[in-house]
Task: structure prediction
Amino acid sequence: MAGKSKKAVTGKPWLEHYPPGVAAEIPPLSFNSICELIEDSCNQYADLPAFTCMGSSITYSRMYEQSTHVAAWLQASGLKQGDRVAIMMPNILQYPVVLTGILRAGMTVVNVNPLYTPRELEHQLKDSGASAIFILENFAHTLEQVIDRTDVKHAVVTSMGDMMGGLKGSIVNFVVRRIKKMVPAWSLPGHTAYQEVLRTNGNNFSKPNVGHEDIAFLQYTGGTTGVSKGAALTNANILSNSMQNDEWMKAARKTPGQRLYICALPLYHIFALTVNAIMGMRQGAHNVLITNPRDLPAFVKELGKWKFNVLPGVNTLFNALLNNEDFRKLDFSMLSLSIGGGMAVQRTVAEAWQALTGCPLSEGYGLSETSPVATANRFDATSFSGTIGLPLPSTEISIRDDAGKNLPFGEVGEICIRGPQVMAGYWNRPDETDNVMTKDGFFKSGDMGFMDKKGQTTIVDRKKDMILVSGFNVFPNEVEEVAAMHEGILEAAAIGVPDEHSGEVVKLFVVKKDPSINEKDVAVWCKQHLTNYKRPEYIVFRDELPKSNVGKILRRELRDE
Result:
């Protein structure tokens, strides 16, 4: 551990270790809203490709045109400024068009994981009060099961090939529906086809007056109670973080021409949303969308078509690529920035990545509540530091004890964050907001760490019981609640255990009510009610679970075993 100082950390020691040319503070916001930023980019970079997916591309001007139709349709459907609109899609060309259209209409985007079970989807739609949803038909059967119990009045259904052109799009849709059988049967009476939305008269679009404090996104995350909550991210939050990231990127190696990003992380995840989509559009960059990075051979084949410059990812993604022989043969001469986030980057992975690509793997840190990036390693670094780096411009990190007192260098406490990227609060949950915000405006991350004299922070543990699976939060309470819904289960406890592929996986301890239930019964039940990354990898039956004197299940004892 870093050497200790007798004094608490004061001031901003990290500023002395900023890269040359990177400002300590970002300037005042130059746009009133994200939609203004996007409109400016669509005008400035009109003829350049904005997004490419499966061989089809959309230019900035075309994205502007099509998003105008989306915005006009939303307004014509009776939705008002501030209404919530959900997007339930993987990385396909429709996503950035719909995203832009919702924002330009002055409405709030609710990002939904397409793999959610009906239970998870129902909670998010009801909690957000979403009035409309744009959904890929592959997942419409999930919506069908819950839509009548939500406030959703308008469902727009799109198909995989809808933006790939006539013949190609038809072939893709045929393959997805018939050959690969990826589209289960579904029925959503009164739904609107995406192509119909694009035929809406864009001249009827009325530009709203959107400001910094208007909520742009409800980004759902877990909490200390395990109940999924919407982090309310304002236009100012996202604009600020895009500026902070843009400023930090000044230290990265320059590449000629338009920057090319690989977007392998899902755009519904806050990391890709801000870094790839928003910051990418701010820079007039070209994002190549990877719909299914788990199909590693297809992913690597796509990478081979591009001289890519920026590759954000999580440790598991980098590790998987490193172990693919075809990936090792690619040309990395134009790769100037590899960004690791979402979960801890392992030193062995980082060192192997740099040895292969010649590009250091720079670890950053953040949360949905911080839009997301709060700290990052220097992008001009030549080696892996093992820390989460320095606070971004206009960001402060404070290491505090349980009483809220600043701790000296080297002492472990809770990592607290203050800056313009910190959320406005949790949607309709002032009590939960109060639990995570200090009186002086710091967000309590729930992560434990220490700061060294250079201002670099190292994470050592999590204060919460959260399990981190491939960069996604899994809260034990939710897994346990689902398990307890099974009539044959008396009690359950979930913990995270190390996994070489995903960082951690869920291990579930079960006390039976019905002696006849077995591991398969529990696994099938969890599959029905939990999305894939939340499902237990290991299921262990116990006669009893360790408990405190007041009856609280002691997960730490289970972990210590």
Notes: The mean pLDDT is 93.
